[in-house]
Design a protein that fits this description.
By secondary structure, the protein is α/β, with parallel strands linked by helices. It has helices spanning about 1-10, 45-55, 65-70, 75-100, 115-125, 135-145, 155-175, 185-200, and strands at about 35-40, 60-65, 105-110, 130-135, 180. A five-stranded parallel sheet has the order 2-3-1-4-5, sandwiched between helices. Catalyzes the specific phosphorylation of the 3-hydroxyl group of shikimic acid using ATP as a cosubstrate.
């Protein structure tokens, strides 16, 4: 009943915002205030690290899943239940097309955002893409108690993560300007690794101190 009430609150579709892609340029030639987009599987730390990077760069932070929830008034599992994965992916594509047109932002994308070619084009054409990579076992340890991840509500979520990794890892790498391994470092360590890569490449101004 609660889900039905929630579903009725987002009956109208998000308005589609056509993507305007900037020509992809060498990192050294890019704007030092370029957007920074995080990709990676669920549990990789995109939201946590992205929010901290945004704070250090004094930028606005967005999480595409959170924006969809705020816009529709429904949690992601409810959208999956009422509209299916295809319906959710339509909303996700519209949101990414919209958010990637903003300037001077940090964006954490959903784990499946790279599945559609138009999303990969928006990300690659409008900012610097950072892939936070983790192995499926570590991701399973981080997400096994999270009930807000509809794709993992199966009898064997670890096997599902392994299957998702096989499909998505090449797509993350296709998009990425940088690949950051998330296995051992703390959140602060990961943030510093990301900022160091961005600063060395000259694609962001010197970040604020933590």
């Amino acid at each position: 009943m609660a889900q039905a009430r929630q579903g009725s609150r987002f009956a109208s579709k998000l308005r589609h915002t056509p993507a305007r892609l900037k020509q992809r340029k060498p990192l050294q030639a890019r704007d030092p205030h370029a957007n920074v987009f995080f990709v990676g599987l669920m549990g990789a730390g995109k939201t946590t690290v992205g929010r901290a990077v945004a704070r250090r760069l004094d930028r606005t932070f967005f999480d595409s899943d959170h924006e969809i929830e705020a816009r529709t008034g429904a949690r992601i599992p409810v959208i999956f239940e009422l509209e299916g994965e295809a319906g959710f992916r339509d909303r996700e594509a519209q949101m990414i097309a919209e958010l990637t047109q903003r300037e001077n932002i940090v964006l954490a994308t959903g784990g499946g955002a790279v599945l559609r070619a138009e999303n990969r084009a928006c990300l690659k054409g409008n900012g610097i893409v950072v892939y936070l990579r983790a192995n499926p076992h570590d991701l399973w340890l981080r997400t096994r108690k999270d009930k807000n991840r509809p794709l993992l509500q199966t009898d064997d979520p670890k096997a599902r993560l392994e299957a998702l990794y096989e499909v998505r890892d090449p797509l993350y790498r296709e998009c990425a300007d940088f690949v950051i391994e998330t296995g051992r470092p703390s959140v602060n360590g990961l943030v510093n690794m990301v900022l160091m890569q961005l600063e060395l490449a000259g694609v962001v101004a010197k970040p604020l101190q933590a």
